[in-house]
Amino acid sequence: MSSAPPAAYAPTGRTVPTRSRERAAYDRDVVHAILDEGYVCHLGFVRDGAPVVLPTLYARHGERLYVHGSTGSRPLRGAREDAGLAVCLTVTHVDGLVLARSAFHHSINYRSVVVHGTAHQVTDPGERAVALDAIVEQAVPGRAADSRRADAKELAATAVIRLDLLEVSAKIRTGGPNDEPEDIALPYWTGVVPVARRYGTPVPADDLDPSIPLPGYLSRPLGK
Amino acid sequence: MSSAPPAAYAPTGRTVPTRSRERAAYDRDVVHAILDEGYVCHLGFVRDGAPVVLPTLYARHGERLYVHGSTGSRPLRGAREDAGLAVCLTVTHVDGLVLARSAFHHSINYRSVVVHGTAHQVTDPGERAVALDAIVEQAVPGRAADSRRADAKELAATAVIRLDLLEVSAKIRTGGPNDEPEDIALPYWTGVVPVARRYGTPVPADDLDPSIPLPGYLSRPLGK
């Protein structure tokens, strides 16, 4: 699959840089839209000089991202230091498989956001409450108010870190294959296979009181 | 959302470590199955002391992973050094949203594999050909033989790196919510919303010769 320079990503063909220091105003909506469509990111940090990449839940709240986890987990502990923890937080949506006539021009339609920065632990109780609600709401809007909020013991076991949206880039590939002109006559099927996330019918827990109906926020299709 | 130790991942609740040095034989199939179901990974490396996480295509070939990209891209250049490039390659599948009665026990059903190691550039022409075919086949089995393979110029522009499956862990969360006994009577709906990847009907390129039919490997549903 192709990866023509100047793409920063290895294999994803043509890319559209959508945010730079010069174009922050225009691009903010693009970045927010990509972030808001997801809830699982890949969080990178450095441990003993080596990279570590872990899947984790996140939420966007304004120009800030929140990630939470056990107070004992490595990145959460690292963020507790005064200097914070250098991280890279990446969110990717795959939208299609791009099948060109040439193997080289095979690609993926995708949208991604890469955030670089220093993560800091959130200690203010008010901000922690906002962040924890936001993380529940990110995946299932409407759910935070329809569940029992964390008690003191649970709060004590939960670390929250924040990462401001300062150094952010979005990359998007859309459209069909980009074959070389001399390949157009080759006898291979060419086009795009769309890819999307699908939500199934909610499955009640075995011990759910059958008199409790499916809430409205789950009756509509999730993810728009 | 909960993250009880000893989970290595921040927010994903109970996890099942499925590979360790002691249990490699049992776990190899689990690791392979998770890797084989995907084709986009998140590749982490260290640049100027800071972490970088980029989405990229990969393929598994036996006990080895391949990633490719432009010869000019940062991780591919880094892997060219004799010492190779320290990387962390992570593949994650999201299978469900787990809605507990308490916010704390909200979670995600998922399967993930994390591979740590040193990536090296592949220079042997035969192995490079195998790797490039494998990357096309990873997303669309059957496609490599039904496309024009890379010519000398394209091969010269493409770097391939390999990462052996030596230091690998898989984590899996399945099942329903794990609420506290004292929360069972709370009046909140609880259960799991299934999540899966969906492939749409293939969309032919505008310039596709209409006499070329959809190939058999695209007539069946992708991704099983």
From TrEMBL, chains A, B:
Species in which this protein is naturally found: Actinacidiphila alni
Listed Gene3D superfamilies: Electron Transport, Fmn-binding Protein, Chain A
Positions of the UniProt region annotated as Disordered: 1-21, 204-224
Pfam families: Pyridox_ox_2
Name of the protein in its database record: Nitroimidazol reductase NimA, pyridoxamine 5'-phosphate oxidase superfamily
